[in-house]
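Objective 1b: paired records.
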Amino acid sequence: MEPQSSKHYDLEERTLKFAREVIAFTNTLRKTLANVEIIKQIIRSSSSVGANYIEANESLSKKGYALRVKICRKEAKESIYWLKLIEIKEEATEKQRASLVREATELMKIFGSILEKVKSQL
């Protein structure tokens, strides 16, 4: 496998792992009225990061690829917002949230870097 394909695969796996970890995290939360609505949003945005990256890798043009990567970055940023908004009482859960926020931030930066590189090639 060539290095570029390997990078795509690794990022696809990483975004899948992120979505799975968010889902597992949300399953531990108290189901208050607010949390139920926020949980729906965080699951959508966190899973959308990887789904859009898969779409980006299937793009037929650099412009299509750039558009999907931009959506990945946006969804990662949105995930951070929803994670920060969730109501948490337990310290262990707070540490888990902080870890997910860090991962979403890293993903956002990775997609931002990819986007800048692709834009310079357009």
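Objective 1b, second protein:
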Amino acid sequence: MPEKEEKLKEERIDSYEIISEDVKTKVEIVKKDSVVSYKLILPEIDVATLALLDDIKERLIVGVEMSASEVMDPQIVNQLKGEFKPKAEKLIKTELPEIDEETKNHFITSLLHELVGLDEIEYFLSDQNLEEIVLNSSKEPIRVYHKKYGWLTTNITPASEYKIQNYANTIARRIGREITTLNPLLDAHLMTKDRANAILTPISSKGNTITIRKFARDPWTVTDFIKNKTVTAEVMSLIWLVMQYEMNIVISGGTGSGKTSFLNVCMPFVQPNHRIISIEDTRELQLPDFLYWCPLTTREPNPEGKGEVSMLDLLVNSLRMRPDRIVMGEVRKKREAEVLFEAMHTGHSVYCTIHADTCEQTITRITNSPIEIPHSMLESVQLNVVMFRDRRKGLRRIFEIGEFVLDEELAKSGEVRYVPNIVYQWSARDDLITDKSEPKRLFYELYRHTGLNKAEVMKDLETKGEIFNWMVNHNVRDVNSVGKVMNRYYTDQKALLDVVKENRKPAEIIK
């Protein structure tokens, strides 16, 4: 079929620009034969020009030498890019005076990607609409997970299996590790903080595979969550109140349901003078600048099996760092859970995530193998938030918010067993989060520890809801702007409430 006819069948349903190395590149989302795909629009270069550009590339790369430590240092890499650009521009102008500006800029960008990056993959890393990038083999095009359109096939295919393995080697070298036939698995981080996983053939039977989970450059905030109906202002007011008074929260949900995103959304509710220690396998949390935060991440052992720093190592160590709040990534093992629950009992405010689909399943998972914490220790958890993801519709919602209450019937016989009391629940039919019952233990502990009565608690929740609605109305949504609003709440509450009640512009608060 002629090329013109092929193009006529292709329908463009979206397009936007991404910026990589200060150069704009167009992306098109196209539909052809009911299949939606992702097209990266790069300049077309004829064979003769391409050969000349390859020669220029060789001459430029020959003069570049970088040690392993330099490759891992973002400042040195940026400095190298700054030196490299003018040299490349001068050579291209001399050898190809007729080349147009767009092609020249894209070629220099491609050179930088090849020199200190991952070639064409760098374009995908620059697209903020993507969450995941997957190279399955050199026989298949690269696939990406788009926030709006889900999984898409791209128009870029890796040149060879050797090329994919070279990408994996580059990623490994930058963290001082190696990936080989004897050690065919790699879990690492890029300089951009994105998480990369690589598996070499023949373990991956189709071919060498790389999966990159992108680190959010512009993370979700409470304003985004309320606007997209992941949660309501009423629910977030309750969570803010719980965090303000240093109560413990467990966040549950399935893979990709938004547990870590929700945890990140809640962190600005912490008072600015409280020390936060976060412990993660992969650095995902992004907190406002005003918070007193020390992020810790685990480390895999080297090829000799030495140098590992585990979640448990960091958790035990964090207790010696005088934390006010401990934020922990997913709890998987019994010893981690024991130390974490002990931290709750000794007065630390703790927030963690766990794989479970309901409040009831959360209790089951915590109290059974492999975590196996006794029921009596659940008393220290004041709130359980359960996240849900509908993959078919692309929705993320808070599914349940509940508390763990003592089963009174069993308690009469001397058995300690906790059951869930569901406070809020999401209805899939109406896509609404509705209240199911009033908190029992939670409000009782609030009254006992703060001296507030019910009327004062309800008034506080109402005030917090008004602040959230004002933030949504005025689109106060980036992490630091949300952080400044929360900071003002704790440092000059009257000034903030005056602005909110009079519906004035955020500029008075966000300076």
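The radius of gyration is 26 Å. Confidence is low (pLDDT under 50) at residues 1-6.
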